[in-house]
Amino acid sequence: MNPKSTGKQVGQIADRLLQNLATLSSQEPTEPKDKPQPLSPDDARSSMPKIERRKPLATPWQRKWLDMEVTHPDLQVAADATAKFCGRWFRNEPWKRLLVLYGETGCGKTHIAQRVSGWAQACAFQRFLEQRSSTAVSVPSVIFQSFAEAADPEQMGADEFRNWMRDINEASMLVLDDIGAETDRFKSGIPTSRLCEVLNRRAGKFTLLTTNVEPSKWREMWDARAEDRLNRDSLVIEMKTPSFTNFS
Predict the structure, then answer these.
(1) What are 186-206's pLDDT values in tens digits?
(2) Which residue, 48, 54, 53, 57, is CA-closest to 7?
(3) What tens digit of pLDDT does each residue of 97-127 get?
């Protein structure tokens, strides 16, 4: 059972019992005629309002590959969008090849990104095994990368960044995690420039991005070029779930 829901129920029962206690304390003391009966679990449950909600991760694919324990209805929106994105990648469909998941820290964006990357790598390898005797000559590349590392010249120098750009240009899928978490201590503009380079290189190619920067602040965070590319033929999904570490 959801600990948060259980705590709420217990609190409601406690409030009711305290009200009864206050009423009794204001009356003249009398001899009890009947022994008080404890509140049964069934009575407690029936007294609580019922909240109808869809259970997140409704499909076997979502439960197996996303594997999130957050029981929150808004998670289903992100799970459905992610499943459809992966389906388009698998079938090589030509639309909505950029998926952006945004939400508060801890809501599960990176978890989904990592799981999608793992699924896509396993799927690409399986497809290679099935086709290696005919058309496939190598395993399709699936790349997972933290943008904070790729945007920092101290962590990824210019030569290494150019090599990485060649790799992502050929990748079947790029999963770029946590754009907006990068820092630009010297106001060099390098992180924004690198993000625009990535988005230009990945135009029309399957790319999954996660960020805690909401769309209305993209231009302020980066610039108009980045905002335009993030909105171009993309699907932007807000994850409204509470912190994954505090809600289960």
Answers:
(1) 899 999 999 999 999 999 999
(2) 48
(3) 999 999 999 999 999 999 999 999 999 988 8
* d(C-alpha 227, C-alpha 179), whole Å: 12
CA dist 77 and 107 (Å) reads 13
Nearest residue to 142 via CA among 132, 128, 152 = 128
Q: What is the pLDDT of residue 10?
A: 43
CA distance 117 to 125: 12
Bridge partners, 34 (sequence order): none
Element (H, E) at 176: strand 173-179
Query: What CATH class has 60-239?
Result: alpha beta
pTM for this one?
0.75
Query: Cα separation of 194 and 190, whole Å?
Result: 6
Residue 193: phi and psi, rounded to 5, are: -60, -45
Classify 207 in phi/psi space as left (phi over 0), alpha (psi -120 to 50) or beta: beta
Q: Are 243 and 106 in contact (CB under 8 A)?
A: yes
Long-range contacts of 47-53 (CB under 8 A, 24+ apart): 47/12, 47/13, 47/16, 48/9, 48/12
Low-confidence ranges of the chain (pLDDT < 70): 1-55, 132-137, 244-248
For the chain, the first-to-last Cα distance in angstroms comes to 9
Listed by start position, the domains of the chain span 3-46, 60-239
